[in-house]
Amino acid sequence: MARIKGVDIPNNKRIEIALTYIYGIGRSLSNKILRDANVNINKRAGQLDNDELGRIRDEVEKYIIEGDLRREINMNIKTKMEINSYEGTRHKKGLPVRGQRTNRNARTRKGKGKTIANKKK
Q1: What is the CATH number of the domain that holds 91?
Q2: Tens digit of pLDDT for each residue in 47-105?
Q3: What spatial distance separates the first Cα and last Cα of the chain, rounded to whole Å?
Q4: What secondary structure letter does DSSP report for 116?
Q5: Based on the domain organization, do 13 and 54 belong to the same domain?
Q6: Residue 121, pLDDT score
Q7: Any domain includes 76
Q8: What CATH code is carried by the domain that includes residue 42?
């Protein structure tokens, strides 16, 4: 297994898909990285030689991914919570942040439903 930015990428998958195992890299960014590194998209990750892996690593270094990206996202959320913006207050309360309705859905964000006594009317 090849390691890129501390993540093991699977050998049996195409390199285009294998790069998406790294947090912050999707299909489009994966294709851009491979195009810039001059690597065939259809090659399997296990078939890459050291030269190609080195070129891919150099290209990946240009982007903010993995731990740095996670840290940046968490810092942005904390900043919103500190300045008491609308999104920040929604994060604090554990409610949906992006304008979804909450009176009948949002169970992913709100958690398991709470039973209310005598609410049969």
Answers
A1: 4.10.910.10
A2: 999 999 999 999 999 999 999 999 999 999 999 999 999 999 999 999 999 999 988 88
A3: 61
A4: -
A5: yes
A6: 61
A7: no
A8: 1.10.8.50
CB 72 within 8 A of CB 41: no
Domain extent, residue 8, equals 2-60
Q: Do 53 and 92 fall into the same domain?
A: no
**Residue 120 pLDDT level (bands cut at 50, 70, 90):** low
The encoded tokens of residue 26 equal 């999707």
Say how far apart CA 73 and CA 90 lie, in whole Å: 16
Instruction: Assess contact for 68 and 75: CB atoms under 8 A.
Output: no
Any alpha helices (H) in 11-102, and if so which ranges?
15-18, 27-37, 50-60, 66-82, 86-93
Sign of CA dihedral 63, 43, 14, 11: negative
Q: Is the pLDDT assigned to residue 12 strictly greater than 70?
A: yes
Evaluate whether residue 70 is within a structural domain.
Answer: no
> What's the CA gap between 30 and 96, in Å, rounded?
30
Q: Which of 43-47, 82-86, 105-109 has the highest mean pLDDT?
A: 82-86
pLDDT at 20: 94
